[in-house]
Amino acid sequence: MSASVSARGPVATYAHRGSSGMAPENTAAAFERAIAEGADCIETDVQLSADGELVIIHDVTLPRTTDARLAFADRAPWNVHDFTLAELRKLDAGGWYDDDFTGQHILTFDELLDLLGDRVGLNLELKSPAANPGLAHTVAARLRRRRDRPRPLIVGSFDEQALRDFHAQLPDVPVALIAYDVPASGKLTDLAEWVFSVNPDIRRLRAEDVARVIEAGMAVVPWTADSPELWRWAIDAGAEGMITNYPYALTTMLHGRDPLPGAVGVVVQDVVPHSPGDEPQWAGEHVVLRNVSGQPVDVSGWYLRSQSSERIAVGDGYVIPAGGLLRVWTGPGTDGPTSYHNGRTTAVWNGTKGDSAGLHRADGAIADLYAYVV
């Protein structure tokens, strides 16, 4: 367990879909990296294939994190539950993230359990039960047959009924209610009779909400926290754990060390997302990088990742002078000494709720972590 403590005890690191800031989400590569980075728990998602197999994937559709559009061009909208396990196994689930991860595949639940073993805990989300009828029952039945469960094991969902269905079948397994907002105090009192933790959106979380959950007798484990500032705030508020794309940085900070050992003086000063209704939607969207060091820094080959793992190049050949800045634009435009354009025609940064930006050096090391709330 991690070394820092909240009001309730040691603070745990939950690796969001694995170490998804460093490897493609919900793949063996991301899970193995999270374990190596010292995560206490793997947070991941489970759904059902067309033939009833439990598979590990977040989105209810396949295109964002696989090559389904190419492999099955005539199967739009590529719903996970419309594909058999055999078909899902044909998909590449890593190349979208980086060519180095080409060949990663969608795991089954059993493959995940085998991979984790007793090395790390598991926080399993029952994903979109409405699109996956029978999901809670199937997961409970599979876990009942498996005696080699990860420890700790927690099962969560946004869907309270699905969570109740699961809890009725396996009452010995702690459950977590995932939410955007912390429920009203009266509701918390009812939930505390059978729910272990509330996992709220950190972008909408207030310190008084954390206090209400703790007073009701449950833990608070917010998602998705991706900056040292948010981590420190959540610890001070009393969070018992945090779900993050960057488990190494969080675990390092919890043990009293520098969470950003790859920092060389260039930081994310601001993220300017698109505003809803902007046309074109990428208009105005950019990230401001500032060199706060006393010497020039070559940022050739550097890149940014959003919370959903979209990659934005910083641009080759750019050297930011001491005190200078570079604006990294999402859309097309004319490059200049202090501006680089990615040429994309869709927005990347979340302009309705907030987002996080991981700044990576060319060697992949994390140079800065930044988060904002809209």
From TrEMBL:
Residues 11-254 form the GP-PDE domain. Residues 251-374 form the LTD domain. InterPro entries: GP_PDE_dom (IPR030395), Lamin_tail_dom (IPR001322), Lamin_tail_dom_sf (IPR036415), PLC-like_Pdiesterase_TIM-brl (IPR017946). Residues 1-23 are annotated as: Disordered. It holds the Pfam family GDPD. It comes from the Bacteria. This is Glycerophosphoryl diester phosphodiesterase. It comes from Micromonospora chaiyaphumensis.
